[in-house]
Amino acid sequence: MKNSNENLIDYKDTIRDAVLKDSGFIRLVLSSKKNDMIPWIKVAVRPVEIKGRRKHQFSYYDTKKVIVKNYFGDELVAMLDELLAIPFNQITLMTTSSDTNIRITDKGKVLTSTSKPSCNEEPQDLSHDRKKAFPIPDGVPDELLYTLGVMNREGHVRPGMQGKFHQVNEFLLILDRSISEFTSPEQPIHVVDCGSGNAYLTFAAYYYLNMVRGLNVQVSGVEANEKLTQKCIELRDNLGWQGLEFWTMRIADFVPPVPPDVVLSLHACDTATDDAIAQGILWGSKLILAAPCCQHELNTQISSQIFRPIIRHGILKERLADIITDSFRAIVLRIMGYSTDVIQFVDPEHSAKNIMIRAEKKLKPGHKPSVQEYKELKDFWKVTPYIEKLLGEQIDKYLR
């Protein structure tokens, strides 16, 4: 049963109590047509949990961009009061017990209506939802994923984009966990995405680290295809983001303004993954995340009498070459001082390209067991991996 009234209630106190005191608070949305008195067309507020602390995320929507900020404590109270001082004319307050819709007429009359709750979420247990907690959740409007064509305006993933949605979120989960050991709000973090392409994950990394995590992150995308670079620059400008640059050049030719802390290589084709890993090593990057794409360089080199029943079949030889190539990459990283593992970063149902090499600079270079493994693998397959050629003297001194 829906009830309505036209009494001039103090709706602001109702909102404050729900947002600040009600453990069943789910979401607050304020909207209006933009004018000189209203800087945003919509603002959404929802509870989030970051590193075990409950905060409230404010998403400020303009016609071209969204700004996301997280607040708690006295700052939350101040920012909520500031928000309620803006003359929005349409407000929706959602809790686990009810939905409240508030409309303010041009004459200042407050019209309210309440209805049964439209959402059964349990925000008081944000870290233990039955559904996997994604950095960018489904069902919540997100300007970036809308702009990239992954979501519609209502925040629902578009048909055919579930794979990309899961890929973006799984990547952000890995990135978030991997950088936690060397990040701080005070120190800027420099990220280079090698072979950025359409830059779905480049934009996602910038957005999440800066606007959700609140870190000071500078991101550079390097891509040889000028058309893709220009497309990314236009999207960045439309979003109004600062600290995100795109460069048209080969990975090996890129000279970053400062050595990057993080190097990404996400589905860069063939030896471009080797270029990215080698540059990350030479730059001394703290973290390297590489998700290989197609890789053909060793396919024409490998030969083995024992494996002849496998390599006589093109598709089997191709998959074997992929495994051997990534094995060499992982061993090289360990030789060069990186703690390395190879993981599945997204379920195969969402992407066939689901292998990621994750490397953190934690070890002393020249690990002898890894050197021995590398030499034995080379001798068995009678190959010289491209990444060894790229590193040259830097790795030769350990292989002598």
Strand order in the largest sheet: 1-8-7-6-2-3-4-5
Number of extended strands: 15
Unreliable runs: 1-8, 121-125
How confident is the prediction overall: mean pLDDT? 85
Main β sheet profile:
8 strands, antiparallel
Whole-Å distance between the termini? 81 Å
Fraction in beta strands: 15-25%
The number of helical runs is 12
Task: Explain the overall architecture.
The protein has 400 residues and is α+β, with helices and mostly antiparallel strands. Helix content is 34%, strand content 24%. It contains twelve helices and 15 strands. The strands form two sheets. An eight-stranded antiparallel β-sheet has the order 1-8-7-6-2-3-4-5, with helices on one face. The protein is elongated, with a radius of gyration of 25 Å. Mean pLDDT is 85; it is low at 1-8 and 121-125.
